[in-house]
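Researcher: Quick test of sequence recovery. Tokens follow.
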């Protein structure tokens, strides 16, 4: 009889998603965003498109144009698959219907022991006057990585903002609209920020996107208690989030 060996948690450092792979996925998303803006599908209306509609079409373009046609170097079917709202369990294994907006499966990682929960989890949120950074992007998006709903076996994940042009992650000048930096500086009670937002040294801003910024957060439940792996009894380590803000029309 085969004996089940407990997987190593947290995943050891050598199994982390590489920065190069993050940069490839981020570039692919910016290219897909450009195609969605310049070649929108029939019936797509930017003025009316909500989060789900945008994410749906963004994934279709990522898969059928960018990934399938190898438009971005390194972003190909040999390594990547992109899914929308696949189902995962939370860190306790009790809620088995957690659905990140996008999930990028990275193929060819034999060193990973917990393949069921390995990959790039992405949460997408609009950023505008009715979807504020604090109440929407942070309290309905980022929090899902902090409280173990998403990516509990990973130590890195991604947030994508569909941001109106007057919103920035870290504005260089004082502006009237709330930024990610300002929202996190208000120290929301359920999100502890230990570092950032800081720009990724290898990410460049484009006409369609800001440079990716990185934050680090302690992981805790809604009562402020540290998250614990049910498999090992050990504390779940901090999570690093890469923030890609795409400029919305």
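Model:
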């Amino acid at each position: 009889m085969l004996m089940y060996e407990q997987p190593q948690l947290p995943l050891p450092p050598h199994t982390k998603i590489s920065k190069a792979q993050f940069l490839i996925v981020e570039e692919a998303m910016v290219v897909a965003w450009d195609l969605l803006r310049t070649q929108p599908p029939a019936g797509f209306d930017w003025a009316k498109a909500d989060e789900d509609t945008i994410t749906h079409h963004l994934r279709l373009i990522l898969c059928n144009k960018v990934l399938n046609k190898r438009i971005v170097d390194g972003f190909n079917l040999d390594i990547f698959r992109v899914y929308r709202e696949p189902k995962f369990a939370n860190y306790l294994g009790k809620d088995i219907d957690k659905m990140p907006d996008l999930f990028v499966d990275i193929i060819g990682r034999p060193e990973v022991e917990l393949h069921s929960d390995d990959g790039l989890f992405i949460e997408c949120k609009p950023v505008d006057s009715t979807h504020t950074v604090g109440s929407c992007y942070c309290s309905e998006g980022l929090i899902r990585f902090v409280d173990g709903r998403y990516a509990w076996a990973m130590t890195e994940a991604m947030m994508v903002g569909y941001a109106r042009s007057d919103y920035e992650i870290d504005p260089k000048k004082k502006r009237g609209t709330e930024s990610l930096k300002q929202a996190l500086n208000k120290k929301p009670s359920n999100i502890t920020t230990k570092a950032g937002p800081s720009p990724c040294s290898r990410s460049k801003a484009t006409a369609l996107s800001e440079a990716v910024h990185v934050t680090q957060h302690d992981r805790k439940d809604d009562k402020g208690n540290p998250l614990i792996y049910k498999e090992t009894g050990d504390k779940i380590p901090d999570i690093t989030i890469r923030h890609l803000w795409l400029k919305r029309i």
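The two ends are 59 Å apart (CA to CA).
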